[in-house]
Every structure is written in C-alpha cells, then in structure tokens.
Design brief:
This protein has 5 helices and no strands. The protein is about 60% helix and about 0% strand. The longest helix has 15 residues, at about 5-20. It is globular.
Length: about 70
C-alpha cells in the first residue's frame, strides 16, 4: 500500500496535540464529515480519501507528504 496507516494516525495525533485541536474541530475546519477523522483514528475506516487528507494537511499546517510520512 502507498500509505502506512499507523504512521498517518501517529502524525495526525501528534499534530493535533501540537496545535491543541480536537478531532471534532479539525473535522469542522477541514469541511469533512462529522466523525470521519475519528472513525479513521479508531480503525473503523481504513483509508481516508485524498481530498480528506489534503484538507487535513491544510488545517494541520503541513504538507501532504509530511502527513503521510513520505518526507
């Protein structure tokens, strides 16, 4: 797979802590469905869409490769 889900989850959680943001606030700011990020972080959904990842990277002030662990 092109994406390591464990690394992605770790990076999202780290960036949430650094920016002092809740999962719900990031979902709202990114314009993604309520519960979409939470479902991924707890393992209910396997792969966020590229659109979702792009929106998350903007809200978390990082590049998409950084968020995915491709840096």
């Amino acid at each position: 797979p092109w994406m390591d889900h464990k690394v992605l989850k770790e990076r999202i959680n780290k960036k949430l802590k650094i920016k002092n943001l809740s999962v719900a606030s990031v979902e709202r700011l990114a314009g993604i469905g309520a519960g979409a990020l939470r479902s991924f972080l707890v393992g209910k959904t396997k792969s966020p869409t590229l659109e979702t990842l792009s929106a998350l990277s903007q809200i978390l002030d990082c590049s998409l490769p950084d968020l995915l662990g491709l840096d």
